[in-house]
Amino acid sequence: MGSFDGVWFVRVLVGILVMSSSLAGTPLAPSRPGLQALKVGERGRLVCRASEFGARGDGKEYDTRAIQASIDYCAEQGGGVVHISPGVYLTGTVFLKSNITLWVDEGATILGSTRQEDFPAQWTRWYTILAEDAENVELTGGGIVAGQGLKFVEEFKAEKNVMVSWNETGDCVGDECRPRLVGFVNCKNVHIWNVFLEEPAYWCLHIVNSDTVSVHDVSIHGDFNSPNTDGIDIVSSNNTVIKDCHIDTGDDAICPKTMLGPLYNLTVTNCWIRTKSCAVKVGSQTNYNLENLHFEQLTIVDSHRGLGIQLRDRGNINNVTYANIQMSTCYYHPSWWGLAEPIYVTACPRTPDTVIGSINNIHYINITTTSENGIFLSGLEESFLKGLHFSNVNVTLERWTNFTGGYHDYRPGCQGLVVHRMSGLFMEYVDDVWMHKVILRWKGSNGMSDWGLPFDITPSTVHDMHLLDYENTYVS
Length: 476
Ligand SMILES: *[C@@H]1O[C@H](CO)[C@@H](O)[C@H](O)[C@H]1NC(C)=O
Ligand SMILES: *[C@@H]1O[C@H](CO)[C@@H](O)[C@H](O)[C@H]1NC(C)=O
Ligand SMILES: *[C@@H]1O[C@H](CO)[C@@H](O)[C@H](O)[C@H]1NC(C)=O
Ligand SMILES: *[C@@H]1O[C@H](CO)[C@@H](O)[C@H](O)[C@H]1NC(C)=O
Ligand SMILES: *[C@@H]1O[C@H](CO)[C@@H](O)[C@H](O)[C@H]1NC(C)=O
Ligand SMILES: *[C@@H]1O[C@H](CO)[C@@H](O)[C@H](O)[C@H]1NC(C)=O
Ligand SMILES: *[C@@H]1O[C@H](CO)[C@@H](O)[C@H](O)[C@H]1NC(C)=O
Ligand SMILES: *[C@@H]1O[C@H](CO)[C@@H](O)[C@H](O)[C@H]1NC(C)=O
Hints:
Elements: H1 5-23, E1 46-49, E2 58-62, H2 64-76, E3 80-84, E4 87-91, E5 94-96, E6 100-104, E7 108-112, E8 127-132, E9 135-140, E10 144-146, E11 153-155, E12 162-163, E13 180-185, E14 188-198, E15 205-208, E16 211-221, E17 232-235, E18 238-249, E19 254-257, E20 263-275, E21 278-284, E22 290-303, E23 305-311, E24 317-329, E25 343-347, E26 359-371, E27 375-378, E28 385-397, E29 407-409, E30 417-419, E31 425-428, E32 430-442, E33 455-457, E34 462-467, E35 470-474
Parallel strand pairs: 1-3, 2-4, 3-6, 4-7, 5-8, 6-9, 7-10, 8-13, 9-14, 10-14, 13-15, 14-16, 15-17, 16-18, 17-19, 18-20, 20-22, 21-23, 22-24, 23-25, 24-26, 25-27, 26-28, 27-31, 28-32, 31-33, 32-34, 32-35
Antiparallel strand pairs: 11-12, 29-30
The structure holds 2-acetamido-2-deoxy-beta-D-glucopyranose (NAG) (8 copies).
């Protein structure tokens, strides 16, 4: 877990001390499950142990009912800590409630079912752990929540796995038909910390229409070759803080978007990311505004795209800052969106009928990247990208994979993949662009002939461009 191991350890230790003192003296051999589980902890919180409600943790028999019973009981009493002790707990969807801390102990794994019948009827509620309309909910304890994603692979392929689809009902189609791992929908005051989220079958952590959500010291690990294994999707939620996380997965790692309402105030700090898709992706669902997004102190490794914005709908994206970021981006199979661009901004309508929103005030500060492709900024005649500020941005262009490039990637939709020469900085339909201390260093071309074009600017679509300190240089 990198540099925050120590802090985490202390937190876990404190957590364990609090838990064990509150659990001490719990009566054994419950004849009436539920009542025996009662114990008021030192922090004044009730502790309900799933084991006392019949959870076995043998990884074979389903513990869904027992875990749910312990949550329901705890919630009926006004809330408390639901304790999952070491073991493997196979479950269908488990519903969290208000004022509940789900404490998955170190050594405990909540293992998501791979059978559709263990999930609710509506596909939108397919999660292993789901909190709906809840407040003051917490997921922590140092343990694991795992989705058995590899069991959803129909065909393993190095470029991209083919996944199972639960589309029998016709509610969802193809790739979108698998359960997510953990979801918070219409929630308030959510705290997710000190937990490992592993092998999601589809999106991993989903925060929807919620307010005041804190995610920290969370490790997410998804299969690198499985599509839609997103890390954290933040949908139409306000005041989300994500920090000290480690995300290594196949699809987009951190992905704010809007489908249900606007999204305000998202801060992401000190995260390590590797993905076969986009590390930080704003969009592409952008039906409402996204404002005040701040990404700082990120390390992005060997990802297919670094900092991406995909505006495809009617919302506006305004005031986004990326600061103090180090990355490397490279090519993977073109069936994955992305062409190794460290920075990528596109506005284009999802369908010919879409009225497109706008992108304004985007800041890139103190960024250093080694990338196989250049920066790509593409607006539209009816939606110029406006107010793009680059300050202290160093791009080393280097080829180390065998892909020959030569494409522009407008996906999803729009012009799709377009054959086009590679460049250090591509711009079309942009207005008010500032480049202050921007350095492009061209390093190894790996035999690529089409190499070294510093700018590719579509004439007459670039307005008000300021190159205050821009350097283009060849290095050996
Ligand atoms: C949760 O706890 C708070 C504070 O103790 C209380 O006001 C609220 O009613 C509780 N909510 C539920 C649904 O029990
Ligand atoms: C379900 O998805 C699979 C794979 O994407 C597809 O071949 C099949 O036609 C779909 N079935 C239904 C009922 O949509
Ligand atoms: C987020 O804030 C906006 C603006 O105040 C509000 O319209 C929206 O309902 C809020 N969303 C949530 C999930 O609280
Ligand atoms: C966004 O954050 C600012 C500053 O903390 C706060 O004043 C504002 O109410 C927040 N917006 C929403 C929609 O919660
Ligand atoms: C832009 O967003 C940041 C948070 O990321 C906030 O502190 C700042 O006030 C916002 N600026 C404007 C003009 O709203
Ligand atoms: C970019 O390179 C210059 C010159 O080597 C260096 O002074 C600066 O600190 C670098 N900036 C970043 C963000 O790495
Ligand atoms: C960018 O780096 C400079 C020099 O290290 C530092 O003074 C400045 O605070 C950084 N900017 C941001 C927004 O962190
Ligand atoms: C590039 O191709 C060569 C020759 O086929 C192969 O040896 C090498 O491993 C490939 N490199 C990468 C990064 O795929």
